[in-house]
Amino acid sequence: MADLSLQHIHKQYDNKGLEVVKDFNLDIKNGEFIVFVGPSGCGKSTTLRMIAGLEDITSGKLLINGQEMNNVLPKNRDIAMVFQNYALYPHMSVFDNIAFGLKIKRLPRKEIRSKVEEAANILGLEQFLKRKPKALSGGQRQRVALGRAIVRDASIFLMDEPLSNLDAKLRVQMRAEIIKLHNRLKTTTIYVTHDQTEALTMADRIVILNNGEIMQVGTPKEVYNYPNNLFVAQFIGSPPMNIFKCTFDGKAVHIGDNTILHLQDEQVELLNARNYKDQLLYFGIRPEDIKIQTRVDASKSSTQIETVVRVSELMGAEYMVYADLEGTDFAARVEADRNIEQGNRIYLNFNLNKTHFFDYNSKEKIV
Which SUPFAM superfamilies match (predicted)? Predict the structure, then answer.
């Protein structure tokens, strides 16, 4: 078990002069499951490799249990790493692949067998110990890679996109397996992915990165419900938050030329207090917070917005409805029994308790 602290970590490649990780600061508690998520090239895997000792740290400090690790060899950091491509030895059996690190340490044969069999039992690999990797499915190979990490009894697990080579069904199954494994072992884990669904379903806390910088750190609920900035709002969620350019007239929001959205009193007070009258803003709302009706409700006619369905996708229990509002595409979720079809005229009601406003220039959250 271990606590980690990354303090003002920078990574720059001299030959390119490119800073790929910029002032990364994060404290990780003992036993936490932390997920680094972000688009390709955002610095998440590079940060993981610096923690593992596979990349040098340009500046800053990496502390594990209070001890600086910048110049400690990877083998002496008490870290086990699971790679995207499994990194199994094709000529070795499952047993020997899992046992390889223990044999390097010259542990007694009896202890090695005990550790391997325990890991195989945890991961459901008992009947595969004599097979070679080529005789296993992708999910079974990933279990072997996890088993090799488990037997080391390391204080930290690092996982670099371990499920990206699996099909959709196997990814869901392996997500559940990894969570069960973490709940059982309680080992401090850092998991890298570009898949925000994995991040939301697996993490104790999510670290969202973009262009080498931390955009937000928080629990899955925090980053989904309270994004700090426009990037997080549009990156987290599937489909992501709908974003509209708008202007605030001191009482209401104008989206385009014809759509007026009357705000709640506290929203009006806050925007006025921060001098946003007659200013451009970004208005955000998630697909599930847009209610759709197929006819005008006279009691709500002043707040209803009319548009036409462009695309309607049946997702099983719900439709994803795509339409246009004042030249901006948006998505809304609708229960499948509503039967909303392409070309239908619809009327929108926004849940004003779930709206978000972002500064037009800084892209930071206002309210």
Answer: MOP-like, P-loop containing nucleoside triphosphate hydrolases
pLDDT for 301 equals: 47
Q: 176-205 pLDDT, tens per residue?
A: 888 988 998 899 999 999 998 999 999 999
pLDDT digits (tens, 9 = 90+) for 129-145: 999 999 998 888 988 98
Q: Looking at the 3D structure of the chain, how many domains does it have?
A: 2
How do residues 147-162 score in pLDDT, each as one tens digit?
A: 998 898 889 999 999 8
What are the DSSP calls for 163-229, one per residue? TTTS-HHHHHHHHHHHHHHHHHH--EEEEEES-HHHHHHH-SEEEEEETTEEEEEE-HHHHHHS-SB
Which residue blocks in the chain are alpha helix, DSSP H? 44-52, 94-104, 109-123, 138-150, 168-185, 196-202, 220-225, 230-235, 265-273
Which tokens is 342 given? 């392409």
In 3D, which of 46, 23, 48, 22 has the Cα closest to residue 35? 48
- The CATH number given to whatever domain includes residue 329 is 2.40.50.100
Beta pairing class for 205-210 and 33-37: parallel
User: pTM of the full predicted structure?
Assistant: 0.91
Would residue 367 count as lying in a domain?
no
Contact 182, 34 (CB under 8 A): no
Burial of 104 (0-12, 13-18, 19+ CB in 10 A): exposed
Q: Are 294 and 243 in contact (CB under 8 A)?
A: no
Whole-number Cα distances in Å, 150 to 47, 86, 121, 361: 22, 14, 12, 47
146 vs 141: CA distance, rounded Å: 9
Domain enclosing residue 181, as ranges: 4-230
Burial class (CB in 10 A: 0-12, 13-18, 19+), 278: exposed
Of the candidates 65, 57, 80, 70, which has an alpha carbon nearest to the alpha carbon of residue 190? Answer: 80
Task: Convert 293-309 to b/e letters by CB count within 10 Å (16 or more is b).
Answer: eeeeeeeeeeebbebeb
Residues 6+ apart with CB under 8 A from 173: 139
